[in-house]
Amino acid sequence: MGTAAGDGLVEAAAEHKVNLSARRPFVEALRTGLAETFFPDDPFRGFGSRPPAARAWGALKYFVPALEWAPRYTLDKFKYDLLAGVTIASLAIPQGISYAKLANLPPIIGLYSSFVPPLLYAVFGSSNNLAVGTVAAASLLLASIIEEEVPPEDNPQLYLQLFYTAAFFTGVIQTALGVFRLGLIVDFLSRSTITGFMGGTAAIIIMQQLKGMLGMKHFTPKTDLISVIHSIFQYRHEWKWQSAVLGICFLLFLLSSKHLRKKKPNLFWVSAIAPFMVVIIGGIFAFLVKGNEHGIPIVGDLKKGINPLSISQLTFTDKHVNLAVKAGFFSGILALAEGIAVGRSLALIKNEQIDGNKEMIAFGIMNIAGSFTSCYLTTGPFSKSAVNFHAGCRTPMSNVVMSVCIMLVLLFLAPLFKYTPLVALSAIIVVAMIGLIKVKEFCHLYRVDKFDFCICMVAFIGVVFFTMVIGLGASVGLSVIRALLHVARPNTFKLGSIAGGDVFRDVKHYPHARNIPNVLILQLGSPIYFVNAGYLRERILRWVEEEENACKIDGQDLQCVVLDLGGVSSIDNTGIGMLVEVHKNLDRRGIRIALTNPRLGVIEKLMLSGYIKDTIGEEWVFLTVKDAITACRYALQRSRSKDDGEV
């Protein structure tokens, strides 16, 4: 009677069997793996059914997104883009001059960098919301790397040439990453790293602006907090009270405009044009009172005319090329992370999508072209992009409008900005940087994930007390170590039954889950590689030993171990060897091993290696944990019946 019932259970369990005969040719498996790694979004899906001409046109539109939106462009959209473009142009002028001064470059370079790159992004960029321009963090990072070997005071021409060369290498690296679909490299800059790095950079930039706020002429080229504070007091005899008073007035005006925007979001344009108003008012004031003669230093002469060609100024000499590559790489990765993150966050609000790899290509092309036309590194800064978004932009045409406005300034108005007080630029930078120190985000990280908080603080402290490269590198290194720990020490869970035995969950998460008598159910939740195979072997055997001891207390024996492989996406030869060792160890103890829900890539290797056929047997591979438990109970029942018969 019992045997008949057991046979019925086994037949029910075997009704739906694991497909052990599934095989994929090596070429197909390789193609699938590469496609999932480099083309997870499958951008060319549906191309196969089109005629050759349509496929070519579709591919061209993929790499040149302007061909997608330009044919459908309307006058109604242009009205919004015109307003947005003029608004961000009013922000680009003071920011361009300010960030160029932050990088110890001629102020006109900041305006040049807001003319050519936005035109190219409008053609190759995929974001409707991103506004292109220079950024403070990358400007300071470039300056901190380059001036270590080439101080701008000693050789300003070579210093400028290295900025152009660094922009060229940045463009090459970004384009290569986009073409070869290597955007995953940027993913190593986690949100925690970026938050800490940007916060630390903002703190250092704010401290450095005390030079402009106090009207000082000499300052340290170093970026760490100790050097900055020492420099401020070392040259305290250069402090100018006139600059300090004017700077405080500008700060109060800019902070008031930001406060107004928070209170009344519809008046966002007030805070958007506030920096431009500071430049205009400050320039008029400095001109009227002859500020340069009364403790208010000014920008100085700005040449009229559009960007001169700079391709002949790129320097590839052995002495300096490594420096340019280093500066281009670090600043380029940082610029990519910021630009793509900003584009994605704004697109999410509008329920749009942007392609990270296309963005890399767009950034790369505009930086290569920029290096040929007297521009340094550009990306999509958050402040300018947010203004562009709130101004109602509809397409990348807003970047074209901004570029045209900057061109008009360069052709006709540039000399008028010569009277802009340096203290006005410092005030603009300080207010822009305050928003990058995200104290609420720091607190959120501390509450949610202490390790993420540590990664964030390593970046912040490293930037503030050492250098930007050390802070960024240390934080990325800690993030990588964390990722490796997750791979090398994956979680394993003991499962128990809930909901009448049909559902099995982690017993720590669900303390009321029941243990199955004589059966240990373990869930492996990661790929099994050489890195973690030894750990998994020891962890499984430790689970077995603990379960055996628990069974003996109840007067029972552990008869079967069920390994749920649903979370194991892949396995290598070392992992297979680990499973063989575990089977041998359990077999010596008289314990059977069963596998459930193995994936295609895993089952292929287990079959080819002979582990299933020659080691555990095909009959011990099941679709579900419930099927495996049913088979274990039946085997236990048969074993007991056999023992009773012998007696």
TrEMBL record:
<feature type="transmembrane region" description="Helical">
    <location>
        <begin position="158"/>
        <end position="180"/>
    </location>
</feature>
<dbReference type="GO" id="GO:0016020">
    <property type="term" value="C:membrane"/>
</dbReference>
<protein>
    <recommendedName>
        <fullName>STAS domain-containing protein</fullName>
    </recommendedName>
</protein>
<dbReference type="InterPro" id="IPR011547">
    <property type="entry name" value="SLC26A/SulP_dom"/>
</dbReference>
<dbReference type="InterPro" id="IPR036513">
    <property type="entry name" value="STAS_dom_sf"/>
</dbReference>
<feature type="transmembrane region" description="Helical">
    <location>
        <begin position="130"/>
        <end position="146"/>
    </location>
</feature>
<feature type="transmembrane region" description="Helical">
    <location>
        <begin position="399"/>
        <end position="417"/>
    </location>
</feature>
<feature type="transmembrane region" description="Helical">
    <location>
        <begin position="459"/>
        <end position="485"/>
    </location>
</feature>
<keyword id="KW-0813">Transport</keyword>
<keyword id="KW-0812">Transmembrane</keyword>
<feature type="transmembrane region" description="Helical">
    <location>
        <begin position="361"/>
        <end position="379"/>
    </location>
</feature>
<keyword id="KW-0472">Membrane</keyword>
<dbReference type="InterPro" id="IPR002645">
    <property type="entry name" value="STAS_dom"/>
</dbReference>
<feature type="transmembrane region" description="Helical">
    <location>
        <begin position="105"/>
        <end position="123"/>
    </location>
</feature>
<feature type="transmembrane region" description="Helical">
    <location>
        <begin position="422"/>
        <end position="439"/>
    </location>
</feature>
<dbReference type="Pfam" id="PF00916">
    <property type="entry name" value="Sulfate_transp"/>
</dbReference>
<feature type="transmembrane region" description="Helical">
    <location>
        <begin position="327"/>
        <end position="349"/>
    </location>
</feature>
<dbReference type="InterPro" id="IPR018045">
    <property type="entry name" value="S04_transporter_CS"/>
</dbReference>
<dbReference type="InterPro" id="IPR001902">
    <property type="entry name" value="SLC26A/SulP_fam"/>
</dbReference>
<feature type="transmembrane region" description="Helical">
    <location>
        <begin position="192"/>
        <end position="210"/>
    </location>
</feature>
<feature type="domain" description="STAS">
    <location>
        <begin position="509"/>
        <end position="632"/>
    </location>
</feature>
<feature type="transmembrane region" description="Helical">
    <location>
        <begin position="267"/>
        <end position="289"/>
    </location>
</feature>
<keyword id="KW-1133">Transmembrane helix</keyword>
<dbReference type="Pfam" id="PF01740">
    <property type="entry name" value="STAS"/>
</dbReference>
<feature type="transmembrane region" description="Helical">
    <location>
        <begin position="239"/>
        <end position="255"/>
    </location>
</feature>
